[in-house]
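Field: sequence (string)
Field: structure_tokens (string)

Example rows 1 and 2, in order.
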Amino acid sequence: MLEQGFNADDGTVSGAGFGRQAYVGLSGGFGEVKLGKIWTAYDDISGATDAAFNAIVLSPVWLIFQSQYGYTYNPNNGIYYATPSFGGFSGAVSTNLREGVANTRVSAFHVKYEGGPLFVALGYQDDEPTNEKYTRIGASYDLGVAKLLGTYGRAKNADVDEWSVGADVPVATNLVVSVGYAQSKQDGAKAERGWSLAAAYALSKRTTAYAGYFDANKAAVMGRAGAPDSRFGVGLKHTF
């Protein structure tokens, strides 16, 4: 796999060449092994229970969970292994080679359960570049009339606790409305809060259009220099 980002407004390359994921892998009954530049095992589950369909421009988790957003999500020289599913339970571990560069190791794992309407996941990452340790617990439950979402995260050394709640509500066979609220609180600082409302419309089995609105309090704007206190966003996702 080779992934490259492009800026949609001017066509320029976003970031380094193939700077998202670039790896060779092998999968089978034993699970999956990847070698290269890979999302960490922690990143695998980081957006699984986020409102607004985990869209970066709209999700209150992405925009408020500053410490979680700051983790190293795809280090160079990565080694990754994911287990097959055992009765709904599965997991993954990842690390990377320093290749002579000190303090650049990122080690992570996750365990999760997916069975029927219930999803539960725990992720942990030890990030040497920032000397930070991240923990995240996420869960969702599909009631049929709505899918309930919840996330708790902690950055240990920064002494930051974060949580979010949300719901995805199908209002038609091809239309889902998502609402979410998130808070990030560092010890001794004001709480940063934000909420979002988004909708996703299935144009076909593989193509979905989405749009939404996000709003944050003053503490969140001040905590992220230059961040907007509100924004609109639209997107189009196609699965090849």
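Row 2 begins here:
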Amino acid sequence: MQLPDDRTLRELVSRYASIVERFGADIGQRPMVLPNGKFFPDAFTGDFPSVQRLLRRMQQHAGMSDIPIQLGVIDPDAEGEACGTGACGSCAAPNVSPEIAAARLVDLGDGWRINIAPTEARSPVALTAALARALGHVFLLEETSAERPIEEPLEVTVELTTVALGLGTLLLSGSYLYQK
């Protein structure tokens, strides 16, 4: 594996240090959440109640239980193309369209709604990575003010914040999903 160049590594470390310095008191001491039965003892069947339990558990691990977050479904009648056997890869990591990614997070004024596509629940690894990223984004939006906006690029700041919240291993697990 080839690491990024020194300049990029320095920028990542500097950005992470900035996040920890800025939000450290609000983040607190978070455990490194692992994708195992110790952190996720609930049965996961891919249905809406299972995904809700997963979201609540992740919120708890990230220290965000006090933030009202609802779970929503993007186009619940849409069925992803699936061959049924999983051999084609359609049952593995879902391909999330730009429209779904844009609709992932909705500000409700007094809380948030995190939307998922029905096909995402088929891959617990991809689902936990998407939920972890959404929680990192919610945290940033809750803790950022007009005087101190979120550093660009947004995606980098969201992912580094998610790591600081203890959910980095879930992002790592979802970073490489192979499907043919």
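free_text_note (row 2): The first strand starts at residue 69 and ends at 73.
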